[in-house]
Amino acid sequence: MKTINYTLGLVGLVAGSLAFTNSAAAFNFTTNFTTNPSLTGNQRWQGDIYLDSVQYGSTIVRDFALVNRVNILSNDLWTGGNTGAASADKGDLATVGLSQERLTADGAVAALGNRYLSSIIDTEDSGSFAMNLFFDKAVDNLFFFERGRNSKLDVQAIDASGNLIGNLLALDSGKNGPDWQSAGYQLNTLEIGDFQTVGSRGVSIADLGVTGPISGIRLFSRGSAYQGPDFKVVGSIASVPEPGTIVGLGIVTAGLMASRRRQQKG
Known about the structure:
The chain is α+β, with helices and mostly antiparallel strands and 266 residues long. The chain is 15% helix and 38% strand. Strand 12 (181-187) and strand 13 form a beta hairpin. It starts with 5 loop residues before the first helix and ends with a helix.
C-alpha cells in the first residue's frame, strides 16, 4: 500500500479545522471488562480483555458500534525497529487481534473492530498519522482508551463520505487538556516490555461540534509532541427513528397542514 507523505498531506487533511480546535470537554466513564479466567496475577493484563459495558451517570452502554472500515490517509513508513507511526498490536498472550508493523487498512480494522481492549493501535513516540475510522452503526458517543495515559490524540467527526465536519478536538494527557482517567486495567502487549496503565475518556457528538449522529471520525497523531497514542475506540449506537416512523411522521404532518388549510379557507 502506498504511504502518503504526512508533511505534504497535512494541510489538506485538516484544512479549515485548526481555527476551531478545542481541548476536550469530554466526560468520565467506568469500564467493565472480563479477563481470561485461566490467567492470574499480572498475566491477565497480557491476555484477552473483553469490554462488557461502560457506565456514565445512570447510563449503561452494553451494545457498541465498532470500526468496520478504515482509510489510512497518511502513516509514517515503518522501516524497522521503532520507526513509522501507527501499527496493530495486541496483548502478549491474547488470542484476538494481530501484530502488524506496516499497517494496512484491513489490519487497522482487525485491531479496532472488536470489543477486545487488548487489541489496539500502537503509535511510535515520534510517529505521525491521519486516518478515517467508520463505524458499523451511527454513533452519538465515543469511548476512547489510551495505553500509558501519556499521549495526545486529535479527533474530528466525518460524514459518510469522509469529509470533515464540526470542530477538531484534542484529547490530551493533561498538559493542554483533561487527564486520561484510569480505565481500571493495564496492558502488556507485543510492542512493549512491561505493564502500562490504561486511561479512558468519553467524547459526545456535542464535544465534536455536531448535532446529530455521526458515521465516523478522523484521528491524528502529529509527531513527538503527541508521544505516540496507543488507543482503542468504540461508540454508543445512536437512537434514530425507524424509516417507517419517519414516513409516518411525514404523513401526520402533511395531514395537519391540509387540515389547517381547509380551516383557513372555511
